[in-house]
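TL;DR need structure tokens for one chain.
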Amino acid sequence: MSAIGAPTKSLLAFTGLIYEVLLFLFGIGVLLAANQKRGLRFTGILIMIHVILATVSIFFPMNLREAEKTLSDTMHVILYTAIPIIILLIIGFGSAANGKWFRIYSIVTILILILFGILTGMAAPKIAAGLPTPWAGLYERINIYGYMVWIILLAMVLFRVPWGSGLDS
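>> reply
TL;DR here they are.
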């Protein structure tokens, strides 16, 4: 969607910028809400790192499948290998935000993201070869939206609990 020459590139750049600014501010909010909870402090910091990496990735868009591969493609792959790892760490550290149900939901989310990340990775050689990958977009969307839903639930959990109270109970 953000590839060089893709018709959706400018729309994604605009909406992505808004998303990244809001997510960075949310990361600051998580950090402020963390109080003495080390896991939540790491979560807030990792959210901000995620935003920085995602913002840097804007400068390294992929080329469309039929185009010759460049340094931009390589950097894009490197950044989008690091970002999912950061996301898994965000969910892992943030899982302690509010009791057993949120921890279990976080573990299930991590497992789903790993599964669909593996499926996306298995499609990567076909993408590089310019072959059809009819399910790769779905796998990527499951990962993206799975993380977004987790972020929404984290926000709801943090909004519900008064700051400075026992978030791990």
